[in-house]
């Protein structure tokens, strides 16, 4: 007999080998019964719900994985948050002669923290920059 709203549900099949009555259901079947109450009846909607839940797993996984990666990096490389001071010895001596105005200007252009200058005084009292005496 068909109802006005759709197909009639069939009763569950009888077991081939009836067993004695159990006092309680196993825990897993009780959990599945509770979950089935909240799921939609349509197979298509169940599939869409399953795909939606599965699509949330990778972002959550990589979020926690990335947090762990950042913690490990901070432990190994603590200086990243507080970097060391960069001091140019004699200016940028790789691109210009050391202790020259060009080397000092190039070092300032490359945004170093400080420039170390070797200053000496001549016998007549004049200051000059020279690496070795």
TrEMBL record:
Keyword vocabulary terms for this entry: Glycerol metabolism, Membrane, Transmembrane, Transmembrane helix
InterPro entries in the cross-refs: GDPD4, GP_PDE_dom, PLC-like_Pdiesterase_TIM-brl
Cross-referenced Gene3D superfamilies: Phosphatidylinositol (PI) phosphodiesterase (3.20.20.190)
Pfam families given in the database record: GDPD
Catalytic activity field: a sn-glycero-3-phosphodiester + H2O = an alcohol + sn-glycerol 3-phosphate + H(+)
Presence of keyword Ribosomal protein: no
Catalytic activity, EC: 3.1.4.46
GO terms (BP aspect): glycerol metabolic process; lipid metabolic process
Domain GP-PDE intervals: 84-133
Membrane-spanning segments: 44-66
A GO molecular-function descriptor: glycerophosphodiester phosphodiesterase activity
Superkingdom as given in the UniProt entry: Eukaryota
Annotated protein name in UniProt: glycerophosphodiester phosphodiesterase
